[in-house]
């Protein structure tokens, strides 16, 4: 058994909360080991003033951490699953997907007004094309303002930049103890979540059986199945979390229900579809769902982002 385990993480308050959660989970099962956090700055952290879509590339918040894992400077990497590209680098694997927190998006408004009550031409802050396109689909009158930074910074900008509202992930807001700031949880009819939203990714090396045996107990089967379908959908579309693509899977008594969405930037065109299958067919279902959307015109929408 390893005597010292190093966990790589970004340095934001939310990333540290997530890494510390994994640290505690390891220590609860293996109190004889020592666990340290190593903060690693990613490309996404270095360019905080540019919209994510303009920075480009996949893995903006994970590449440097994954390289540290490959270089054996760390033993475990903890990411927000929604930051993960569809493909994992050779030599690495997802060691565990813990139980998912609330997967939905939250509206936080300056005057405690829900989305339908916001005034005409209201300004809503978000750095996500997925969120912006779905908001504009429901309310073409609203204006979208770019919003970057860590969660606390974005909450501050709600006031300092005189926005009417901002949209953040429910899970992040809740994990930092700020749940009372949420005005409205946006359901799937308004906002389909990003692939992997609310879930953590505990990434490890493929050739590290000792670490694998320690991390595997953190896995939550239902979450992993759902996320597997979502990520297969995303990967088939050659997408990442910075284009207007959404996917959400849930497990019920009938099996897996997977919903996928592709939208144009304006929100005028949205293609959305659901499929169901056995949970252990999640990957195949994600691919089939993506192919179904491509056949209905999603490829023409996505080509804009590949040019």
Please tell me about this protein's structure:
There is one protein chain. The chain is an alpha/beta fold. The chain is built from ten helices and 13 strands. The strands form three sheets. The chain has a five-stranded mixed beta sheet, sandwiched between helices. A five-stranded mixed beta sheet has the order 7-6-8-5-9, sandwiched between helices. The protein is globular, with a radius of gyration of 19 Å.
Number of helices: 10
Please state the second-level CATH architecture of the largest domain.
Answer: 3-Layer(aba) Sandwich
Major sheet: arrangement of strands: 2-1-3-10-4
Q: Kindly state the percentage of residues in helix.
A: 25-40%
Structural class: alpha/beta
CATH topology descriptor of the largest domain: D-Maltodextrin-Binding Protein, domain 2
Could you tell me the strand content as a percent range? 15-25%
The radius of gyration over CA amounts to: 19 Å
Count the strands? 13
Q: Mean pLDDT across all residues, rounded?
A: 93
Identify low-pLDDT runs: none
What is the string of helix and strand elements?
A: EHEHHHEEEEHEHEHEEHHEEEH
**Domain unit count:** 3
| CATH homologous superfamily annotation of the largest domain | Periplasmic binding protein-like II
Described by the principal axes of the CA atoms, the overall outline is globular
For the terminal residues, how far apart are their CA atoms? 49 Å
Sheet with the most strands, sense and barrel status: 5 strands, mixed
């Amino acid at each position: 058994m390893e005597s010292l385990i190093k966990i790589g993480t970004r340095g934001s308050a939310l990333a540290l909360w997530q890494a510390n959660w994994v640290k505690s989970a390891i220590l609860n099962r293996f109190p004889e080991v020592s666990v340290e956090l190593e903060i690693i700055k990613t490309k996404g952290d270095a360019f905080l003033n540019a919209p994510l879509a303009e920075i480009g590339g996949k893995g903006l918040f994970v590449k440097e951490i994954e390289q540290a894992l490959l270089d054996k400077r760390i033993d475990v990497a903890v990411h927000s699953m929604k930051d993960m590209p569809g493909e994992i680098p050779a030599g690495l694997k997802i060691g565990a997907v813990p139980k998912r927190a609330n997967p939905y998006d939250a509206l936080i408004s300056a005057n405690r007004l829900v989305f339908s009550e916001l005034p005409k031409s209201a300004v809503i802050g978000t750095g996500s094309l997925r969120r912006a396109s779905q908001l504009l689909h429901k309310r073409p009158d609203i204006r979208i303002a770019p919003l970057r930074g860590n969660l606390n910074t974005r909450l501050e900008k709600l006031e300092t930049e005189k926005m009417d509202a901002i949209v953040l992930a429910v899970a992040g807001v809740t994990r930092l103890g700020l749940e009372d700031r949420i005005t409205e949880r946006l359901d799937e009819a308004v906002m389909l979540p990003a692939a992997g939203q609310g879930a953590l990714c505990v990434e490890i090396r493929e050739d590290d059986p000792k670490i694998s045996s320690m991390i595997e107990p953190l896995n939550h089967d239902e979450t992993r199945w759902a996320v597997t379908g979502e990520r297969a959908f995303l990967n088939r579309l050659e997408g990442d979390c910075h284009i207007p693509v959404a996917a959400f899977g849930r497990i019920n008594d009938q099996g897996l229900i997977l919903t996928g969405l592709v939208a144009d930037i304006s929100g005028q065109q949205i293609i959305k579809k659901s499929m169901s299958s056995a949970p252990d067919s999640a990957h195949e279902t994600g691919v089939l769902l993506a192919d179904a959307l491509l056949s209905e015109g999603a490829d023409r929408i996505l080509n804009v982002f590949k040019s």
